[in-house]
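We were asked to recover a plausible sequence for a given structure. The inputs and outputs are reproduced exactly as logged, with field labels preserved.

PROBLEM: sequence recovery
POSITIONS: 268
GIVEN STRUCTURE:
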């Protein structure tokens, strides 16, 4: 008897004309297990959507440099509505009542206000995925299995968060005798993105997640995800050890030309 294959979590298309904001959203969703694409405008988004049939969720800023999110949702419906199912989420920091009504009229299922929180965004994406599952063949069965998968992800996330809180509350450990202030030229460096190097510099300065979020203009949840990712890439056991190694890693990365400009945490 042929067994049902596991439901596929839909890919996400994120549309924002601000490159830094777009990159942060893509990294945040990627860290949470979603396959993502990015686009900066309506035409770019339409082409990306057409190229990947696995895209089922579209998150778009309302105000784009050319066109807007409502226009994009409308054109997606006209061009693909008869052949592909998708769910749209609009975000904006300057939306009026008319904008919200228009977004819902065109088929958006959520309208989120900026600045976004990580939990709020993930909840909206999960709702979109569940609605998408309902619209597919065998939707009820897929929805139930998707719920199980999401519940598992949420449970694991809570366990990881609890463990991280216990680690951060633990008394600082003494630096190991083998830790050197300067790395040798042959010692490998962790493979971090520019934003991760920036976060690492702040961690090394002893900043809390809240202070880092304020300094970098991010949400606290986003900073927590960056720190978690850095811990995984550096294979360091806890935040204290990460802070102890940060200066040496940053100095070596700068010396090897891996950083255009060495990220320095603000004073204070």
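RECOVERED SEQUENCE:
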């Amino acid at each position: 008897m042929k067994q049902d294959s596991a439901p596929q979590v839909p890919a996400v298309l994120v549309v924002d004309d601000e490159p830094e904001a777009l990159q942060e959203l893509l990294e945040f969703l990627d860290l949470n297990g979603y396959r993502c694409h990015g686009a900066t405008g309506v035409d770019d988004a339409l082409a990306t959507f057409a190229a990947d049939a696995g895209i089922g969720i579209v998150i778009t800023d309302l105000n784009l440099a050319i066109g807007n999110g409502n226009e994009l949702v409308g054109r997606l419906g006209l061009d693909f509505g008869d052949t592909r199912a998708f769910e749209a989420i609009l975000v904006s920091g300057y939306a009026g009542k008319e904008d919200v009504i228009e977004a819902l009229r065109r088929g958006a299922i959520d309208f989120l206000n900026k600045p976004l929180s990580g939990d709020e965004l993930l909840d909206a994406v999960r709702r979109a995925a569940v609605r998408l599952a309902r619209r597919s063949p065998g939707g009820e069965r897929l929805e139930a299995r998707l719920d199980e998968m999401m519940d598992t992800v949420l449970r694991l996330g809570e366990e990881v968060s609890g463990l991280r809180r216990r680690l951060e509350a633990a008394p600082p450990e003494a630096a190991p005798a083998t830790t050197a202030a300067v790395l040798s030229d042959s010692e490998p460096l962790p493979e971090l993105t520019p934003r991760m190097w920036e976060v690492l510099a702040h961690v090394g300065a002893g900043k809390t997640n809240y202070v880092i979020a304020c300094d970098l203009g991010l949400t606290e949840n986003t900073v927590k995800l960056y720190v978690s990712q850095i811990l995984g890439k550096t294979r360091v056991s806890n935040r204290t050890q990460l802070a102890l190694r940060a200066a040496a890693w940053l100095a070596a990365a700068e010396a090897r030309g891996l950083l255009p400009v060495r990220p320095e945490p603000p004073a204070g």
